[in-house]
Input
Amino acid sequence: MIAVCLPSFLSAKIWDDTAKVSDLGDVYVYIIDGATGGCWTNISESINYAEGKLKALGVNVVKPQPGFPTDRQGTALIVNVSITRHEQGWCYGGINVGFQTVGYAVGNRNLFGLIEYSMVSMSVAGGNSANVNVINTIQQALDEWNGRF
Output
C-alpha cells in the first residue's frame, strides 16, 4: 500500500504584530540540510531565491560567517529541511523557514537569548523531490513580511 498526502502548511506566523522589515537588520541565509536520499537537490537555487526575495523586501543581505547562526552576525533566515526518502520511493518530512537572531528582550535587559521573529512550517509526504516545496516555503515565509516597513 502506498500512502500519499499532499503537502500542508502547519503554521505561518510572525510572532510580533508590530515587527517590521527594518527590525531584522542585516540578514543572511543559513541552511540546515537534514535531507537524505536525494530529496532536496536545489540548495544553491534555494539560497539564491531567498536572497533575491530578501533584497526585494529592502533587506541588506550579507553572507554568513563560520559559526552557529546565534553568533551575533545579524538575523538569520534559517532554512531547515529534514526530509528523507521512504523505502517505496517518495519523500517525507518537514521544512521550517524563519527569522532568528540573538538579543535582549524588549523592555528587559536582563533577558538575553534566541529571538524568533517568524516561522513557517510545511509537512511533506509524497513526490520524488521536495525542491518545489522548499522554494514555496521560503516564498511563504518572506511573503509574510510584505507591507511591514
